[in-house]
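ok so i was messing around last nite and threw this chain in just to see what happens. nothing serious, just curious
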Amino acid sequence: QVEVVESGGGLVEAGGSLRLSCTASRLTIDLFAAGWFRQTPGKEREAVSCISRYYGDTHYQASVKGRFTVTRDNAKNTLHLQMNKLEPEDTAMYYCALGAYCSDARVTELHHSWGQGTQVTVSS
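result:
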């Protein structure tokens, strides 16, 4: 079974930066659309960003565009989310996702169950 593991979250002040990482067992990440979701209590997971399988095109939720960058390091089989100029509204549990498609910042047809996520907390 595929298992994803997120890391890199933490507590930062507004305007700070974090870099999230995601690894997946039994998957080569460059063969899949990949990206990130986030979730706060009482809300559904929302798509943050994704990168396409075939062309590497990136897509971002409007609220993070220009501040976040999604990349994959094929040599290390790792997905990253570089988050700059963090805002309190970015506070959430962040989850990575690998699936069939990347559309409107959302990875669809996931090839795994949700991981544990990594917590990002941004203080004002």
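not much to say yet. The chain has no helices and eleven strands.
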